[in-house]
């Protein structure tokens, strides 16, 4: 009888899925596709503009359309994943994203391309929280969970830079259209893998969708993202900027009030009132705003000032990709279990700040090895520590019924942070360039460099502030203690 007792099967809820590492590969492929599309089109925009004959003023909407639909629908889609089952929403998101990418790649007009990008954002909003919540519910052993989140963090941290590299290579050697078609490869792998490997996913029992909450948060996020995007391309004083920002803030205040008393809240207060999770969401919002300075203004500097080609500027980002991926893995597997998120966030933010200060030394004739290589490596290491920690901490301790919305909160913070960063840093850069030209009317190139270094100083300040504020919010010690 003792033998029978010793071999008693483990309950299904705690047994490790024998296919969990293959599931991780599928999730990583899907997440990489989503993260790539935040930046992969940046280097393809000039070619797409030439092919489809749209104006420079319209160009921003190829990027903004994706961010608008993605950011505004994330919390809704995160809760939808909890209610409908994460496998269903994961596969639906993949199929829809693939179809939208195919339409975008074949676009013969600006309106078709923008519509395809907006559709990509809709299905990315369904896909991204489903992918992270699947990871959170698949890996239950702490050591294996750390490794899995290390891989996820590596993809999240390195994906943006990898998107620039891939976008430059595809645009240079094939066509800008392949920046859209490449998604079909990632989607095909993830769809087949997800259909074969993912088991039936638990749904939130007795859950209902909080429709007023959906309307408030989706409308609020749309207004905020649109308002910040409009500020970046027009000005803060136009009604289409401050009007949307005020409306967005009002809707989000109404949403927060609603969640405190709703029977089935879209974002249960228990998810965000935990100090570590709240610290993770604030961290990704802060770093999302400041990281924009690396991706956009450094590309401008390399291409417009130093004369780099699209492919060369993409490869120039490679040290950041390598270091961010490596440090995300090391941070999650070695540092997070031992020290907890607090010192990792502080160290990552301060590394980012130091890298930004280092970047302020650039001039109109800087050499890559002496002026860019070191700062990119430092910023990459800091980004890896931060994004690796965020994915693990932002979903730690939530029950399966809240895994989707907790995952969506991470992506929402990143999207909102990126939108704020776009508006603020573009405004700062434009003001700095104008002021410089007032004193030096014939020095357009030097004015551009001055605007970039001014932005890098502001980014350093954002990261340093994030180290203080986010570090203070997070608890001491490893996750699960205190």
Please write out the topology:
Blueprint: H1 2-6, H2 20-36, H3 45-52, H4 56-84, H5 86-105, H6 110-138, H7 142-173, H8 178-197, H9 211-233, H10 239-261, H11 269-272, H12 275-305, H13 310-316, H14 318-339, H15 341-359, H16 368-371, H17 373-393, H18 403-439, H19 444-473
Overall number of structural domains? 2
User: Would you identify the regions where 5 or more consecutive residues have pLDDT less than 50?
Assistant: 1-13
What share of residues is helical? Answer: over 70%
Fourth CATH level, the homologous superfamily of the largest domain: MFS general substrate transporter like domains
Order of helices and strands: HHHHHHHHHHHHHHHHHHH
Strand fraction equals: under 5%
Q: Give the number of helices.
A: 19
Distance between the termini: 42 Å
What kind of sheet is the major sheet?
none
From the 3D coordinates, which CATH architecture of the largest domain would you assign?
A: Up-down Bundle
CATH topology of the largest domain: Growth Hormone, Chain: A
Structural class: mainly alpha
Shape: globular
Give the C-alpha Rg.
Answer: 22 Å
Mean pLDDT: 83
CATH class call of the largest domain: Mainly Alpha
Question: What does this entry show, briefly?
Answer:
By secondary structure, the chain is an all-alpha fold. It has helices at 2-6, 20-36, 45-52, 56-84, 86-105, 110-138, 142-173, 178-197, 211-233, 239-261, 269-272, 275-305, 310-316, 318-339, 341-359, 368-371, 373-393, 403-439, 444-473.
């Amino acid at each position: 009888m003792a033998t029978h007792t010793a071999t008693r099967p483990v309950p299904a809820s705690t047994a490790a899925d024998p296919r969990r590492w293959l599931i991780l590969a599928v999730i990583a492929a899907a997440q990489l596709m989503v993260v790539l599309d935040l930046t992969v089109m940046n280097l393809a925009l000039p070619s797409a503009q030439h092919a489809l004959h749209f104006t420079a003023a319209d160009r921003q909407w190829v990027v903004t359309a994706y961010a608008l639909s993605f950011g505004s629908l994330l919390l809704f889609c995160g809760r939808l994943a909890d209610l409908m089952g994460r496998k269903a929403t994961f596969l639906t998101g993949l199929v829809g994203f693939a179809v939208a990418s195919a339409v975008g790649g074949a676009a013969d007009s600006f309106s078709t391309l923008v519509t395809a990008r907006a559709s990509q954002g809709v299905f990315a909003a369904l896909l991204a929280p489903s992918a992270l919540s699947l990871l959170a519910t698949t890996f239950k052993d702490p050591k294996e969970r750390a490794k899995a989140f290390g891989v996820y963090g590596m993809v999240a941290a390195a994906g943006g830079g990898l998107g620039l590299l891939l976008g430059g290579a595809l645009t240079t050697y094939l066509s800008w259209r392949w920046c859209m078609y490449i998604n079909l490869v990632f989607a095909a792998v993830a769809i087949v893998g997800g259909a074969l490997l993912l088991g039936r996913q638990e749904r939130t029992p007795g859950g209902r969708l909080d429709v007023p909450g959906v309307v408030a948060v989706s409308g609020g996020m749309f207004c905020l993202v649109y308002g910040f995007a409009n500020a970046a391309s027009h000005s803060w004083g136009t009604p289409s900027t401050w009007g949307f920002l005020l409306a967005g803030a009002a809707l989000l205040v109404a949403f927060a009030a609603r969640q405190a008393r709703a029977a089935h809240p879209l974002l249960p207060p228990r998810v965000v009132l935990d100090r570590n999770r709240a610290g993770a969401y604030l961290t990704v919002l802060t770093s999302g705003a400041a990281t924009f300075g690396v991706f956009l203004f450094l590309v401008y500097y390399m291409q417009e000032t130093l004369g780099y080609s699209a492919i060369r500027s993409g490869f120039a980002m490679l040290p950041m990709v390598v270091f961010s991926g490596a440090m995300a893995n090391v941070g999650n597997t070695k540092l997070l279990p031992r020290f907890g998120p607090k010192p990792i966030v502080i160290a990552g933010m301060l590394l980012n700040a130091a890298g930004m200060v280092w970047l302020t030394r650039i001039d109109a004739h800087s050499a890559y090895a002496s002026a860019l290589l070191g700062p990119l490596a430092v910023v990459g290491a800091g980004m890896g520590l931060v994004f690796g920690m965020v994915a693990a901490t932002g979903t730690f301790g939530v029950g399966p019924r809240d895994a989707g919305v907790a995952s969506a909160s991470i992506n929402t913070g990143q999207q909102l942070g990126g939108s704020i960063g776009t508006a603020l840093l573009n405004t700062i850069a434009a003001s700095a360039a104008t002021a410089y030209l007032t004193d030096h009317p014939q020095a357009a190139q030097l004015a551009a460099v001055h605007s970039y270094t001014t932005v890098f100083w502001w980014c350093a300040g954002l990261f340093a502030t994030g180290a203080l504020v986010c570090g203070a919010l997070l608890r001491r010690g490893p996750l699960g203690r205190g």
